[in-house]
Design a protein that fits this description.
about 725 residues, alpha/beta, 5 domains, six-stranded mixed β-sheet, five-stranded parallel β-sheet
């Protein structure tokens, strides 16, 4: 039944109220409010036109004697004429935008002169809103300013129960013809920018889309009124994949093969593409390159695959579906749900993953093609670093390309952090960005350690390392080999001839001889981060958990471009034995997994062990360097004692380093004895660390090692031994 007779009487009162409520006020002089006033004036004119149209139709339909009870023949004839007129003009010309009034341009110029951007303009720029979209936003905002608008809206849609702006109202007001109404209907649908970004949100449920009421998203009204806020926080489309400002694509992603695949996806020759083998950090660039070649925007999965696919189809976009979480029995239900949706659609889709996901039914129903995306090689990395940081010089560019295998996202982050560092350090004068690249790399890559690894930032240098010349040179050689390996492997082709990736080193020797310290020094020479595997967190009694934790440790090291250290590696890399018990079989499986994973790693991996013979021989064959750390001799011990006391420490004149060097102690034992001596001197409030304090420190260290310090070993300082054993 028509409600026209119940709403016509509200026209004059509500129209006056709405206009007077938005034309004045103390904030009208502010640019934001003044802009709203100017735009609402145009909305008011459109509202009057809509009211007059509704009044004309209502006058033709009203029959006081019959309207409350039925629809008459005359009314049906009038309605048929209206719908015929609508359909006849559906294909008429449509002018999407109206010219901007001079008053609005003047206001915008004045705001720009003051360094301001009008809020409505900011929203339009940020979210790509047309002028019609902006008018719809204003119509939704108007009832928040004056409730008189509610009755006007109810009158226009001929229903007192629908006072909030609905799709029908927003489509009708200001639309001159059917073509214009259809264009607005599409823009106000779920895939349109206002609803897709959440600037307008559905209020309640409606049987038909035209009756769906809409309200402003949180904070939108306050932003429009110039009360502050961030436009980026007002709306968000979780499925939208935004093109990054910096393009640092690998040259491979512009290759003929990928371009052909993208063009086939864009033309419809295929509708399902697979990009396999690309690591997670590089997938965004790969999929964006594919979508760019297809000439389509890019979207990704959010919550509901069916809604995501429907939106992508409406926008003519490629839908990106990562598939790593769709493998295995544990994810079977999710995989079946995605597959079922894809079987009902022909919208273009791109699948990505380390390993292929190829359901046979999906490949049979769709037109499918795939491409394996390789890890960027050295020339690719040079090009990517050069694109990210054009100011890099030749030697630095070459060094970074060799040492770091970064994805496009990581390179963009490094470039951004380096730019910010240059601006901050320059204090108004920009410094060379190249000077801030290494700190930026550390910021981006370091500190990603999880529960299974401990992150160590190297602090000690080669000057702190005391070893015989042979072992010292081997340590330096490891750093040089790790730096040179990418060029040897990729440019010289050795990677194709060898199953071993990266550089692997084994350090053996007694505890305290400098194995862990040497790993830290090698890492520092390479400018990397050291990730030390925490065996207590990695080794598990549950079958398969140790391998899972180890994989996570290797993955973290590779993603962080870090050196991986297995300290006391005997527990993991021990010898395989004969299977006599059920647990022996699983222990051998763990060793077998580690053999394969160690071989596949492209980074620098260091193992330390007190006993080389405890390591499985299969591992020993895979090490490029095996360094044995002997107990230090007298010359090394003299240097160790000298280094044990920092330059700032007040070392007493009676400290006899020659006598101390004759004591059979490792570097770690000497450092511990020196710390104990310093604590003893500080506790006694002494001016310097004297020989008596050092002897006390040595005595405590011998006791910890269950060894006996004989007076004869201290020579002329034997009398201090009795003092050192007291207390």
């Amino acid at each position: 039944m028509s409600n026209t007779s119940g709403t016509r009487g509200t026209r004059g009162t509500s129209g006056t109220s709405s206009e007077s409520g938005t034309s004045g006020g103390s904030g009208a002089s502010e640019p934001a409010v003044e802009h709203l006033r100017l735009r609402l004036a145009g909305v008011h004119r459109a509202l009057r036109t809509a009211v007059e149209r509704q009044s004309r139709i209502a006058g033709l339909l009203t029959r006081p004697d019959l309207t409350p009870y039925c629809v008459t023949d005359e009314q049906v004839d009038v309605l048929l004429g209206e719908v015929h007129a609508f359909t006849d003009t559906m294909t008429g010309p449509y002018v999407p935008e109206q010219p901007e009034p001079d008053t609005e341009r003047d206001l915008r110029r004045r705001a720009a002169a003051d360094g301001l951007t009008l809020p409505l303009d900011a929203l339009a720029t940020r979210f790509g809103l047309t002028r019609a979209d902006q008018d719809a936003l204003l119509l939704a905002a108007a009832p928040e300013l004056d409730r008189g608008y509610e009755r006007i809206y109810a009158y226009i849609v001929d229903n007192l129960n629908r006072r909030l702006p609905c799709v029908e109202l927003l489509v009708t007001v200001g639309a001159d013809n059917a073509a214009c109404r259809l264009a607005r209907r599409r823009a106000l649908g779920p895939a349109g920018p206002l609803r897709r970004y959440g600037l307008l949100r559905p209020h309640g449920a409606a049987a038909v889309e035209l009756a769906q009421e809409l309200t402003l998203g949180p904070g939108v009204l306050e932003f429009l009124l110039g009360w502050g806020g961030d436009a980026g926080l007002l709306g968000h489309d979780p499925g939208e994949v935004v093109q990054p400002e910096r393009r640092v694509l690998s040259p491979y992603l512009s290759s003929d093969r990928l371009v052909r695949l993208g063009r086939a996806l864009g033309s419809g020759d295929i509708d399902l593409a697979g990009l396999w083998g690309c690591p997670p950090g590089g997938r965004l660039d790969a999929v964006q390159a594919l979508a760019r070649a297809a000439g389509r925007p890019l979207r990704t999965l959010t919550f509901d695959p069916e809604d995501d696919l429907r939106t992508a189809a409406a926008l003519g976009a490629v839908l990106w579906i990562p598939t790593d979480d769709l493998h295995g029995e544990a994810h079977r239900q999710a995989a079946e749900a995605v597959c079922a949706v894809l079987l009902r659609s022909r919208a273009p889709v791109c699948l990505t993953g380390l390993g292929p996901w190829r359901p046979a039914g999906l490949l049979a129903a769709r037109s499918y093609a795939e491409l394996t995306v390789p890890v960027p090689d050295l020339p690719d990395r040079r090009a990517m670093w050069s694109a990210a940081l054009p100011d890099l010089n030749g030697p630095l560019l070459e060094d970074l390309a060799i040492r770091y295998r970064m994805s496009g996202g990581e390179l963009r982050a490094v470039a951004s952090v380096a730019d910010a560092g240059a601006r901050l350090a320059g204090n108004g004068r920009p410094e060379p960005v190249a000077d801030h690249v290494h700190p930026a790399i550390a910021t981006v890559t370091r500190g990603r350690g999880g529960s299974g690894v401990q992150s160590i930032v190297p602090r000690r240098t080669a000057d702190d390392l005391v070893l015989p010349d042979v072992q010292f040179n081997q340590i330096l050689e490891i750093a040089s080999a790790a730096r040179a390996w990418p060029r040897v492997a990729e440019e010289w082709g050795f990677a194709r001839r060898s199953a071993h990736g990266g550089v692997k080193a084994l350090f053996t020797g007694e505890p305290g001889t400098g194995k862990t310290m040497s790993a830290e020094i090698v890492t520092g020479m390479l400018g990397l981060e050291l990730l030390k595997v925490d065996l207590a967190q990695v080794v598990s009694k549950w079958v398969g958990e140790t391998e899972k934790n180890m994989e996570e440790a290797f993955r973290q090291a590779e993603e962080s471009h870090a050196v991986l250290l297995f300290d006391e590696a005997d527990a993991l890399f021990g010898k395989r034995g004969e299977v006599k018990h059920g647990t022996d079989r699983y222990a051998n499986l763990e060793v077998g997994y580690l053999l394969q994973r160690l071989e596949a790693s492209d980074g620098l991996v260091i193992l330390t062990s007190n006993l080389k013979d405890n390591i499985d021989p299969a591992f020993t064959r895979r090490f490029h360097f095996v360094v044995h750390f002997p107990r230090p001799a007298v010359p090394e011990r003299r240097r160790l004692w000298r280094l044990a006391f920092p330059e700032e420490a007040p070392l007493g004149a009676d400290a006899d380093l020659d006598v101390l060097a004759r004591l059979d102690m490792t570097g770690a034992a000497i450092a511990a004895a020196a710390r104990t001596a310093a604590l003893s001197a500080a506790d006694a409030d002494a001016d310097a660390i004297g020989m008596r304090h050092i002897v006390r420190g040595v005595t405590r260290q011998y006791q910890r090692e269950a060894r006996l310090l004989r007076p004869s070993e201290l020579g002329p300082h034997a009398h201090l031994l009795d003092e050192g054993t007291q207390g």
